[in-house]
Amino acid sequence: MKILQIDSARFGSLSIDTPVILEEGLNLWIAENQSGKTTLLTFLEWMLFGPASKRGAKDPQAIKRWTPWIGGTPSGRLVIKPELDGWPEKILVTARFSDYFVQVSEYSTQRSLTDKVTVSKHGEWDLGRRLLNLSRQSFRHSLSATQANVIETLDRSNLRQILTSDLGELVENPDVTTVDRIIEALENPRFTLGDSPPRNMREHRMHLAKELDYLKLEQGQLSQQLNEYHELQKERDSVLSQLEQQDRVILGLEKQRDQLELARNHYLHKVASGELQPAVSTEPEPSAAITADLAHEVDVLYGKLEALEQQISRVEQEISALNISYESAQKLNSDQPDERQGGDTRQLLQQVSAAVETAHREYTVAADRAKRLEDQIPEAEKNRYQSLDKMFAPHREHLSSILEWEEEHSKVTTELEKLRERKVELEIVNRDELPWWSYLGFVCVFMAFLSIIAHYSFMPHMVREILPFAGWIIAAVFLVVAGFLLFPYLRRARTTGPAYTELQNSVLPAMEEQTQKMDQLNRRRMRFIELYKIDRQNWDRLVENIKDYISLDVRFREYSSAIRDRDTIRRRMEAAWTEVGQIEPLAPLVPDMDWLRNMIRKLAEAPSVISGNKFDIRELETQISVQNRELGRLAQERDQISRALEAKLQPIGFASKLREGPRAAMEAFRNLATNVRSGHREAPVPQADPLLLGKPSMKVAEFNERWAALSPTEQNRLALLCRDKVSHDSVCNRLSELDKKIHEARDSRESIRRALDHIRDGMHRFGNIDKVAREMKQRSEHAGRLDKLVHNWDEALATTREIVQSLVNRASSDTAPEIDRAMKSILANAPIKGIEDASLDSNLSLRLRVTGAPADIPSHELWTYMSTGAQQQLALALRLAMARTASGRTDLPLMLDEPLADLDDERAELVFNYITDLSDTTQIIVTTCHQQLYDWLRERRQERVNLMSMPVG
Is 28:934 a contact under the CB 8 Å cutoff? Predict the structure, then answer.
């Protein structure tokens, strides 16, 4: 493949509008800095392989990075010479990277060759693979080299990545590791990744992990529902007990009322039947002085008195409203007028009062709810929860991270403690020393062998004839003694062996693993402390109390929610009341709804004094003065009429009533003067108290039936309870109090019943709780199975990566001989001075034979002792050899950016001459900004060099 022409390019800082023609030999691209020389390599890579993807997906950020500096979208047009069977002589490639578009056509006839290129779902296309038989990674590492990236080819790991880019991608990027790709790799190490649409093992594993997380989330939600349901059950039982207790209270009150009603009816029936005489009233009798004229005069005086009281009350209200208007006028006429000047105070208060009323009503409901829930919580637990909530309030968003760290830390700490205890036990077993006399057993064994040897070597012949087994007998005795002495040693060996094995193979590695986990947790702790801005002391307190706080928060969640709602509504109410204070500076500091309503009513009755004009304060002062004089005049008239009324009533015995007030005296006077005003002039007959003359609440038959059902003792008790007027009044008062208590008890019962209905509605919301429990159990079992499956997938992925790594090693080793032959062919055409022979072994180690090299330097390390220029030449040869081997072709373009960077003149001349030699069989594109250096190198070159200088448009 050859690149013949760049028609146009708009790619980052690279901007080509006039076609640039490239030759098949050496092309020297000389341009200024920031003109797109290095960008040219990336542009050619994108034209051949499409926009670079990220983790198997489109990467819009990469396209945005290469947006043309002159505006528009990144795009380009190339003329390429494929040099492949089935392809035209020249093709035109048009690419628009912003929408992942590529078009290939025949250059001469413009015939479309769309079937020659395939665009993947992640935006890349395979034109470069079809033309070069190389992947993007192989092209980038072998044929394209940026500054200071030429010599990196000599590293063995880079060699493997270039040779087996597809397999290497499986190892470096496990996201694309799949079973199908591994099977294909076994058959062909240079398979095409885009041609295989397999199921992704890692994606499957991630899918299982997500499903597991979702199941755990559902399990947590179901657990929360069960907890809420159980809390509602407890609350329902508590409310039911309260309801039963309230029913008992109501029954007791109704029973007391029935008994008092029976006693009262008994007294009234006896009075009606004449069995009892009612007591004579102690009220003063209407004397002869109480005439109809006197009663009329008293009524007239009292009527005037009431009228004056009403007038005085009205005048006082007007004065209060005028004072408010006067203060508002003073405020509006000051040097710094209020920002609400020109508005109506009453209208502003009415507008704000709606928000205050709503907030006050909601606050009352929220406060009652919070108080009710607070009463159900023990005081100690409530104080504990409030203190913990205050401590965790700034870190509520990080509770999950802190809790996870605390659980892992507790687990690791527990494991370490267990392992340390086990280590101490095993070390005690290993350090258990033997008694000193047990070592004499080895001496006895040695003496037994000496006895046998002495029996045959040193014992006299006569003794052997007399005692033929003397030596053996002595040896047997020594062995018996040795067995007795060595028994503790053998027993210790039987126990210390397994103990030592367990200590070395199990306990110590486990302790090291747990210590590493503890170090990781400590690093996470330091990162959390820095990220969440927590000091170490507070961190220890948070970790120590987080479990207690979460358990209390789950139990008191409704209480904490009620407290937060109450505080939120209170702040909203205070904010609304602040607006009231801005409208009326004399408003109370705390919300007072009665004051607000009275103020709005007074302002409604008083004329509005706020307008957009200047106020006449003197007019308001005059009105206030007039109203004050009117109030004084009315007060004088009231005092005169009060004295006249007192003069009328005091002579006829109402002095005591007058001390209670005119109204009480008038009521008593009217009761006594009833007969006088109706025309009866004779002395009245003493009458009983009107309360005693009331009708019984029971008919005689009903009363007799209920009275007869009582026991004699109960009848006597009730008869004594109400036997005269005084006791009757007391019973009536008690009946009134009981009616009031019964009414309050029934209201309380109704509120409890409504609360019970609300709780039952909340319980009905959960539906069938048994079904929820079964679902939770199923979720838990399914989560366990998924957890095990995810673990199996992790093991499978690890095994897969090992297999792929072995495939990479095998594939690269199989390819090494081909690279060796290609490199020798290139060095034969373009030799490197000083290198006699270069070869590549099966492990991809570069072995050299260099003229004058010391014999003690290994051949695979010789390249590290070579000069930079020689290393550059060798790297270029090896780079081109690998590319040709991987693609199976010999005509591949080589793209270099500043290949002579950081070289002195001598080494730069050597590398330049070598590049010129390679250009005889290879198209080479060199980009640089050092024009003088390359002009000097061209002049130094003895033979003709096919060079080309191309300015960037």
Answer: yes
- Compute the mean pLDDT over every residue in the chain, rounded to the nearest whole number: 74
> Which structure tokens are listed for 387?
């203190």
Nearest to 725 by CA among 690, 695, 752: 690
Tell the residue number behind the tokens 């009663």, with chain if given: 295
Question: Which residues, 6+ apart, have CB-to-CB distance to 156 below 8 Å?
Answer: 843, 844, 845
Residue in 350, 114, 261 with CA at minimum distance from that of residue 732: 261
pLDDT in tens, 362-389: 888 888 877 877 777 777 777 777 787 7
Give the contacts of 684 (CB within 8 A, at least 6 positions apart).
285, 286, 675
Tokens of 420: 């340390």
Q: What are 456-499's pLDDT values in tens digits?
A: 777 777 666 777 777 788 888 888 888 777 676 666 666 666 77
Q: What are phi and psi of 106, to 5 degrees?
A: -70, 135
Angle of CA points 579, 581, 584, to nearest 5°: 110
Give me the mean pLDDT over the 304-308 stretch.
77
d(CA 371, CA 797): 58
Q: Give the residue, 919 or 167, on which the prediction is more confident.
A: 919
Q: Where are the domains of the chain?
A: 241-283+690-763, 300-342+617-673, 345-377+557-607, 381-555
CA atoms within 13 A on the CB side of 55: 4
Q: Count of alpha carbons within 13 Å of 411, Cβ hemisphere only?
A: 8
Give the number of other CB atoms < 10 A from CB of residue 460.
8
Distance CA 32, CA 953 (A): 11
* pLDDT tens digits along 254-271: 888 888 888 888 888 888
Contact 251, 243 (CB under 8 A): no
Separation of alpha carbons 754 and 772, rounded Å: 27
**CA–CA–CA angle 16, 21, 27 (5° rounding):** 100
Q: Rounded distance, CA 336 to CA 329, Å?
A: 13
Neighbours of 244 (CB within 10 A): 11
Residue 895 has φ and ψ, to the nearest 5°, of: -115, 125
